[in-house]
Amino acid sequence: MRKISADYIFPIHAKPIKNGVITVSGDGKIVALSTRSETDNDIEFYSGIICPGFVNAHCHLELSHLKNLIPKHTGIIGFIKEISKLRNIADAQEQIQCAKFYDNQMYLQGIVAVGDISNSNLTFEIKKQSKIFYHTFVEAFSCNEAETKDILKKNQDIVDSGKKLGISVSPTLHASYSMCDGLFSAMKLRSERSGILSYHNQETQDENEYFKKNSGKFSEFYDEFKIPDKPSPVGKTSIHRLLNSIGKNTKIMLVHNTFTSEDDFDFAESANANITWALCPKSNLYIENHLPPIEMFRRKKARIATGTDSLSSNTGLSIIGELLAVSKKFGNIEFNELLTWATLNGAKALGIEAKYGTFEQGKTPGIVLIDNIDTEKMMLTEKSKSKIL
Ligand SMILES: [Zn+2]
């Protein structure tokens, strides 16, 4: 049994506790929450705040070898061009080494669960061995109908290989702009059947323009690269392509949402009752130099979660880094709310809230210390760091 204390404990399901104490069993189960008293002994005390382990709602561990290779502010189309050139710049062994290193980095910084996108099974052994729980979304994309059958088979094979290893996997769609109609419907059906899906949504305004008006940079991109089967525009913003007919209760994680309007939000929430809006602010700043409409999402009481995206569009896989980017721009957001995005909401998005996300008794959420906090204003500072205890 461990008794751990800090200046504040943020249990997430309850209000922060000044001089709180958390009692944890040997296997990491939360036993009790209390306040420190003079007579308490055998307490590990830390300066800073303690909260449940972080859930990184959106990552691509298998792209970890692309750190520092892609220039900033290329816009999404420039980014797609770069990534397709560089994706296999390292051999498989090097890619695995990088992924393994950053899996461990994430854990040390307090990330206990990850919603991870994979296009191969390269990282599956790492995930099996990891201290982190991963739910892997095995993603498909292609704008060539002639390939659809093969891509569906490959996707199924990767999902099956994950299941065989005993890791948590499910099929998913990449984005509106990257999939021809046949592959899109087949993958939509497949991921709806699995009950959970992740989707790169409205990462650029050009995506909306293409699906609304069949014009803009995506239109030019498809022509430039002689894309055989362009997605059919739908006369509305790109979010409609996915959600115009979707199972009401499929768990949907919409990732990025950088150019989601209030109308898009209202439409999405009426189409499905189980949406998480996963934001990856540092990646958005890296690629598009633009942040999602965070005030709108908050006003509409959206379930917001936090992701790092991959190291191809970020300088680190750190949840504190993401929260700091948000609080620099929106200083009025309470720290408890930011931590809720990074813990409970991510756990709900992945369907693992029975174990992760809060300090409720019986859960095994992991325990994270964040130091160098401005405890007067209760805000992160540039020096804030997190670590797993
Ligand atoms: Zn992504």
Task: Write a brief caption for the model.
The protein has 389 residues and is an alpha/beta fold. It has helices spanning 75-86, 92-108, 124-129, 148-165, 181-194, 205-213, 217-224, 239-243, 262-271, 281-287, 294-299, 319-329, 335-350, and strands at residues 2-9, 17-18, 20-24, 30-35, 43-52, 54-59, 111-118, 133-140, 168-173, 196-201, 251-256, 275-279, 304-306, 367-374, 379-388.
Describe this structure in words.
The chain is 36% helix and 25% strand. The longest helix is centred in the middle third of the chain and has 18 residues, at 148-165. The strands form 3 sheets. Strands 1, 2, 3, 4, 5, 14 and 15 form a 7-stranded mixed β-sheet that branches. A 4-stranded parallel β-sheet has the order 6-7-8-9. Strands 10-11-12-13 form a 4-stranded parallel β-sheet. The chain folds into 2 domains: 1-52 and 358-389, Urease, subunit C, domain 1 (Roll), CATH 2.30.40.10; 54-356, Metal-dependent hydrolases (TIM Barrel), CATH 3.20.20.140. The chain is built from 13 helices and 15 strands. The chain is α/β, with parallel strands linked by helices and 389 residues long. The chain has helices spanning 75-86, 92-108, 124-129, 148-165, 181-194, 205-213, 217-224, 239-243, 262-271, 281-287, 294-299, 319-329, 335-350, and strands at 2-9, 17-18, 20-24, 30-35, 43-52, 54-59, 111-118, 133-140, 168-173, 196-201, 251-256, 275-279, 304-306, 367-374, 379-388. 47% of the residues are buried. The protein starts with a strand and ends with a strand. The structure holds zinc ion. The site of zinc ion has 6 residues, from loops.
